[in-house]
Amino acid sequence: MSRPVVQFDKLNLGAMQTTIDRTKDIFDINPERMIADTAHGTGPLLEWLVQERGVSPHIPAVDKFGRTDGTFERADFTYDDENDAYICPGEKELKCGVLQLRP
User: Fold this and answer.
1) Same domain for 33 and 71?
2) Are residues 13 and 45 in the same domain?
3) Which helix (H) or strand (E) holds 86?
4) Which residues face 93 on adjacent strands?
5) Whether residue 57 is found in the same domain as residue 74
6) Does pLDDT of 58 surpass 70?
7) Number of domains in the chain
8) Looking at the domain assignment, is residue 80 inside a domain?
9) What angle do CA 86, 58, 83 make, to 5 degrees?
10) Confidence of residue 9 (pLDDT cuts 50, 70, 90)
11) Where is mean pLDDT largest: 5-14, 74-83, 89-98?
């Protein structure tokens, strides 16, 4: 049975992991779903939720549109329909795929 885990500290992204771990350790409860704002929508956290904990995240991913830090943004990539892949400005291929959530 899943119960909600509420996370208030938006500045400390590791707090969500700590909260989930402690809840599992102390109460033997592991959430099936997690809801949070974009402050928690980072790749490493989303990957940890899905791959390590089997949690279905309902968290908007951080949008990298309009970046000014020298890294590539979405508009810099071109889609190669024949190979079902995106090509970055460095001419490297980013294969498309589907992330499988654990049942």
Assistant:
1) no
2) yes
3) strand 85-87
4) 87
5) no
6) yes
7) 2
8) yes
9) 15
10) very low
11) 74-83
